[in-house]
Amino acid sequence: MPLAVLRVLITSALVLVLAGVAAAQSPYGGRAPNYYVFDVGTGQVLAEQNANIPLPPASMSKLVTLAILFDALRDGRVRMEDTWAISSRAQAMGGSSMFLETRDRPTTEDMIRGIAIVSGNDAAVAVAEGLAGTEEAFAVMAQRWSEQLGMTGTNIVNASGWPDPDHRMSLRDLGILANYIITEHPEYYRYLGEREFEWNGISQPNRVPLLDAGIGLDGLKTGHTEEAGFSLVGSARQGSRRVIFVFSGLNSVNERVEESERIINWAFRQFAEQNVIREGQTVGVADVWLGAVDTVPLVAAGEVTVLLPVIAAGETTAVARYDGPVTAPITEGDVLGELVVEVDGMGTMSTPLLAGASVAQGGFMPRVRAAAAVLSQQLGL
Fold first, then answer.
1. Minimal CA–CA distance to 114: which of 198, 201, 195, 170?
2. Contact 208, 221 (CB under 8 A)
3. Phi/psi at 188 (nearest 5 deg)?
4. Burial, 75: exposed, middle or buried (Cβ in 10 Å; 0-12, 13-18, 19+)?
5. What is the pLDDT along the chain (381 residues), one digit of tens a residue?
6. How many beta carbons lie within 10 A of that of residue 89, not counting itself?
7. Are 221 and 8 in contact (CB under 8 A)?
8. C-alpha distances in Å from residue 282, one per residue of 13, 17, 77, 352
9. Are 123 and 100 in contact (CB under 8 A)?
10. Domains of the chain
11. For the chain: N or C, fewer Cβ within 10 A?
12. C-beta of residue 128 within 8 angstroms of C-beta of residue 141
């Protein structure tokens, strides 16, 4: 059967508000050459530039190592009280360090903190070796894991983000990764916002900026190499909303701090939540084939909330899609299709469409009428 498409108005009030706005949406205009800003609740991308290009991720790619470790904890393959061996290779890692020594036997929780808070390259390598035997074997595992998560712009060759021409991740993939950690492992996400960590008598602060600034920033991971510049994948929550943002290519720590605050303020102040479809709202009718009646109401299975720019000129539309006509009998609550709400330039949200009433199979006369309609169509009458 053909796919039927029915355009529906969301609400007369919303259409009037949008029609009355004359100015265009103000785009994000920060300093970072590469950025990606994503609203977790609605799934809308608020801003992006070079987000799909595989770029050097530096230490931000340690989030892959952490996510795989969190999965192992959830699956029971690793326990928080387990201890980890430290190889001479792990101890010898340069750059940011937890200051592990081969005689140490840190627990899983220590290793999480060593990666999440102080970005220890030594801790990342030790975890990779502990999970897969070697860092090389871990890289193969991490690549497959990333692909399964839908990270199409990622190529993993090590556990720490150590500079390598083949080690690349797109900003969109880093956003997907951050969202996975936040939504799938909320009990471990808190480590990424802890303020400091001490190991072997050396105390180090969390490198994520603005954790105490009162703007909702509570994680995730900084990165810096000469090629990547000063970078960050971060997340902030204000009220019921959470945003994830990723940027790279800045020139200093101060620029990274300023860009973080600029993005957070922009993401929360330039957009407002709007409920555009209510749960159970009738959005149209579908034709019925061989039924006691000719149509059935289409109702939304859930509410649809979108973010709208405070100043915007675009349209918000809803399209009901279903395979029709729908063959009777139909039971109230049957899934008949999908309602797709589109905000101009900001993506789509959807909810299933349900039958708003039951429709019994028709008797003799509806079948005669249906047969006559088919015959007429075939004869071109």
1. 198
2. yes
3. -105, -15
4. exposed
5. 444 544 443 332 223 233 323 233 447 888 999 999 999 999 899 999 999 999 999 999 999 999 999 999 999 999 999 999 999 999 999 999 999 999 999 999 999 999 999 999 999 999 999 999 999 999 999 999 999 999 999 999 999 999 999 999 999 999 999 999 999 999 999 999 999 999 999 999 999 999 999 999 999 999 999 999 999 999 999 999 999 999 999 999 999 999 999 999 999 999 888 888 889 999 888 899 889 999 999 999 988 888 888 876 567 788 888 887 899 999 999 999 998 888 877 778 888 999 999 999 876 555 556 555 545 555 555
6. 14
7. no
8. 16, 21, 48, 12
9. yes
10. 3-19+275-379 (2.60.410.10), 34-269 (3.40.710.10)
11. C
12. no
Do 269 and 279 form a contact (C-beta atoms < 8 A)? no
Lookup: tokens for 80: 């928080």
What tokens were used for 86? 């430290």
Distance of CA 299 to the CA centre of its chain: 27
- 21-52: buried (b, 16+ CB within 10 Å) or exposed (e) per residue? eeeebeebebebebbbbbbbebebbbbbbbbe
